[in-house]
Amino acid sequence: MQPPPTPDLVGPRVRTLWLVTHTEASHHVDGLVGGWFDSALTARGEREAALVGQALRRQVPHGTGVEVVTSDLRRARQTADAVGDALGVAPTLDARLREKSYGVAGGRPQAWLDERFVVPPASGDRLRHDEGVDGAETWLTFARRVYAGVTDLLARAREHQVLVAHGGSGQLVVAAWLGVPVEATGYARFRLPPGSITVLREDGRFHSREVAELGSTAHLRVTG
């Protein structure tokens, strides 16, 4: 089982991880299943991505080494490009940060998936549960790849890191940050709206992993 990226695995250090969920994309407004469907940002999403970048520019200290790492799906890349422009950093891609794959459902109407989706059991093997959709990832496969990506990210000596992900993969980033074992992620969920910023901090004395802010969208309110 993929271990969580705790300080004993990736090294302790004072750091802040800024987790960003991509902004509004076409599949949101068209009522389509996202997953690996490579939707693009809407015009509103592009405006909100710029606001995310501006918010991070205000919060990330100038003169510190910062990197931006993003899912390789287009909607995340576009959000990361706006963030990178604001911070003066070229984003790097990591496919392990992609959203969960919904197989043949990706890009289809959400109603199509809803009719076929098999809900995980309340107890039992939720991690290997078959959702009834051809080609869909199990939660275990999904969690393992996101945890592997976060582990590699946190192993790098950076004081500030921006990670651009999705609503689902972002939840696993938070779980990995907190040291939640992969086998427990079948239940762990965190609400991360589109365009949100989550602030994750590790202190230099106790090496605690703090969720300083979760799924904040205050920086988007100027759009109405």
Question: Which tags fit this structure?
Answer:
224 residues; alpha/beta; Rossmann fold; six-stranded mixed β-sheet; globular
Summarize the structure in words.
There is one protein chain. The protein is α/β, with parallel strands linked by helices. The protein has one domain (15-220): Phosphoglycerate mutase-like (Rossmann fold), CATH 3.40.50.1240. It contains seven helices and six strands; from the N terminus they run αβααβαβααβαββ. The chain has helices at residues 7-10, 26-30, 43-59, 74-87, 110-116, 139-154, 167-177; strands at 15-21, 66-70, 92-93, 160-165, 197-202, 209-216. Strands 3-2-4-1-5-6 form a six-stranded mixed β-sheet. A hairpin with a 6-residue loop joins strand 5 and strand 6. Helix 3 (43-59) packs parallel to helix 4 (74-87) and helix 6 packs across helix 7 (167-177). The mean pLDDT is 96.
What class do helices, strands and sheet pairing give? alpha/beta
Using the coordinates above, name the CATH class.
Alpha Beta
User: Span from first to last CA?
Assistant: 44 Å
Shape: globular
Summarize the helix and strand pattern as letters.
Answer: HEHHEHEHHEHEE
Helix coverage percent: 25-40%
The largest sheet is:
6 strands, mixed
Strand order within the widest beta sheet:
3-2-4-1-5-6
- Would you tell me the overall average pLDDT? 96
- The percent range for strand residues is 15-25%
